[in-house]
Amino acid sequence: GAVVSQHPSRVICKSGTSVKIECRSLDFQATTMFWYRQFPKKSLMLMATSNEGSKATYEQGVEKDKFLINHASLTLSTLTVTSAHPEDSSFYICSAIPVLAGMTDTQYFGPGTRLTVL
Amino acid sequence: GQNIDQPTEMTATEGAIVQINCTYQTSGFNGLFWYQQHAGEAPTFLSYNVLDGLEEKGRFSSFLSRSKGYSYLLLKELQMKDSASYLCAVRDIQAGTALIFGKGTTLSVSS
Asked: Which residue of A has its CA nearest to B99?
């Protein structure tokens, strides 16, 4: 149980274009999902917290107009990187907390999306 | 703010025991997680500690001392497949359910 999927797994795009990444909880519902970014040999950096039915909460330094987050349902959150630039190339990982997680509120991670901006 | 420290790299041999330490500073501690991450893959949940003491789960155990701001992950009977990055993550009351990750410890297991 507690499987999270991401699509696409890899994407290459041209500078200036937009890319949408989907995060789905396959066998549970999640009111809260998180988006992280990870550069090579670095740890996960939280970008934003996505709550179903409300606006996402962005971490300091993350541009909300550049990284658009939509948490449309209890099983789907999307991250759209708008006007992508080469410095946006990174590994983007989402995670989700099951609605019935109990007191641990364990986050379950998706397999990640490798974005390369040319 | 929060600060999480763990060693950058560790090496060990098959069958051995290794302890990965993590120290943290946070104003509203509300739980500590350990995750395993293989290169190019997403992190997988290993353990959760919120009270002092040792949590054992098969070959992996995790310890927490809240007064010292200290945790360790203990891996026994090491296998080659245990070669991975191990991430210590702390949850702070003020941050809700969000996690703050350390930089990770890359463990290399050799035969």
From this structure: A46
Q: What is the pLDDT of residues B17-63, one digit of tens each?
A: 999 999 999 888 999 999 999 988 889 999 999 999 999 989 999 99
Beta-strand pair A113-117/B44-49: unpaired
CB nearest to B97's CB, from A105, A110, A114: A105
Give the residue numbers in B contacting A (CB under 8 Å), as ranges.
31, 33, 35, 40-45, 48, 50, 87, 91, 96-104
Rounded to a whole number of angstroms, the distance between the first and last alpha carbons of chain B is: 41
HSE-CB at A41 with a 13 A cutoff on CA atoms is: 4
Task: Determine the residue of chain A that is closest to B5 in CA distance.
Answer: A43
